[in-house]
Specification:
6-stranded mixed sheet, 18 strands, about 375 residues, single chain, Aminopeptidase, 10 helices, 4-stranded antiparallel sheet
Length: about 375
């Protein structure tokens, strides 16, 4: 039986495993629920390799699974397969939106982003054994619990594991609607600006006040001017707060700002520019915290070469793989910035990440299962 035929026969197994994963609700930060899913994943992968549980008091524990490759050279560095198991969906979502299948489409919260990818990783490893194939090199899998909130507790683990690996395959969804693999992603983060003035009675002695809200208006214009549309740098003042009543000169105001960049040079420029912001209203104080928490995933020669190899392997399976880029970040940003060849977007095709219509295309997902299996055997 060839790989394509084998994978086609795994439709039922794929959907059953995906449903089991979706049924473990795992909102980021909910340690009890995330740990329950980590227990399930660990049990699934224990027969395949050594499971290491990385404690995380702030949320769900992270899992690192090591799969040996007895026929590989003894000095072969592993392939790192990167997944996360947390979702944006609050507990209770499944009560009204359970996983369901309609024709060749499956729907469910967290299915596309990215629980079905955990199923892909397991079934690809099982296919290697079932077909009598051999891994080209050892495989390390990371399943983390905080990607949706910026990976604050897993970043160091991801970077250290990547530096010990030959290359990284990220099972995030592809670029839709073309299904392109991701060779570049924007880096991003958030800055939080606090303005402190002086309160006074707006009718009796307004001259004694120092309006933080007036300064907020100046800072919105200054921050917006930092964008560089020509090179894709975006700056978005998403939330503003200020004042306590219309008859009070406001003493406090804040801005929450989202930033996205394609290059590390632009990241450095924005960091410096935000730190250099200064108030224009006399006697108003300005403080800046935050910063870029994901470096950009820039297309490097090594990552470009990895894509070419994957594209050729896909072509032998009848897949026409293209490359693309996206403004959203992933844990692949960290591995790429660490200097490790990284290819993202190898997960299931579909649509609706973080939306009520979240879904996967089942035939396309089976094709990605065949691709991942082939990559573990050939890369």
């Amino acid at each position: 039986m060839n790989l394509t035929t084998h994978v086609a026969a795994r439709r039922g197994a794929l959907l059953a495993l995906a449903e089991a994963l979706v049924n473990y609700e795992s909102p980021s930060g909910d340690k009890a629920r995330c740990d329950a899913l980590a227990d399930y994943i660990a049990a699934r992968f224990a027969p395949l390799g050594a499971v290491e549980r990385c404690a995380n008091p702030a949320g769900g524990d992270h899992l690192r699974v090591s799969i040996a490759a007895p026929n590989a050279p003894t000095d072969a560095r592993p392939t790192l397969v990167l997944c996360h198991y947390d979702t944006v969906w609050p507990a209770g979502t499944l009560a009204t939106r359970p996983l369901h299948v309609a024709g060749d489409t499956a729907y469910g919260p967290g299915l596309y982003d990215m629980k079905v990818s955990i199923a892909l990783a397991e079934l690809a490893l099982r296919a290697v054994g079932e077909l009598g194939l051999k891994l080209a090199r050892p495989v390390t899998l990371l399943f983390t619990s905080d990607e949706e909130i910026g990976s604050p507790t897993s970043r160091a683990l991801i970077e250290a594991t990547a530096r010990a690996s030959e290359h990284v395959l990220v099972l995030e969804p592809p670029v839709e609607p073309t299904g392109a693999l991701k060779t570049a992603r924007k880096g991003g983060g958030a800055f939080f600006i606090t303005l402190t003035g002086r309160a006074s009675h707006a009718g009796v002695e307004p001259e004694k006040g120092r309006s933080a809200v007036t300064e907020l208006a100046h800072q919105i214009l200054a921050v917006n001017a930092l964008a560089e549309p020509a090179c894709g740098t975006t700056v978005n003042v998403g939330v503003v707060r200020g004042g306590s009543g219309c008859n009070v000169v406001p003493a406090e105001a804040t801005l929450d700002v989202d930033v996205r960049v394609w290059t590390s040079d632009e990241a450095a420029r924005l960091e410096a520019a935000f730190r250099a912001l200064a108030p224009q209203t006399p006697d108003v104080q300005l403080a800046v915290r935050g910063g870029l928490n994901r470096p950009p995933m820039e297309l490097t020669p090594a990552s470009a070469a990895l894509f070419v190899r994957v594209q050729a392997i896909g072509a032998r399976l009848g897949l026409h793989l293209n490359e693309g880029r996206t403004g959203g970040g992933s844990d692949g940003n960290f591995t790429s910035a660490a200097g490790v060849p990284t290819l993202d977007g190898l997960g299931a095709p579909g649509q609706g990440a973080h939306a009520n219509h979240e879904q996967i295309d089942i035939p396309g997902t089976l094709a990605r299962l065949a691709l991942l299996t082939a990559l573990l055997v050939e890369l």
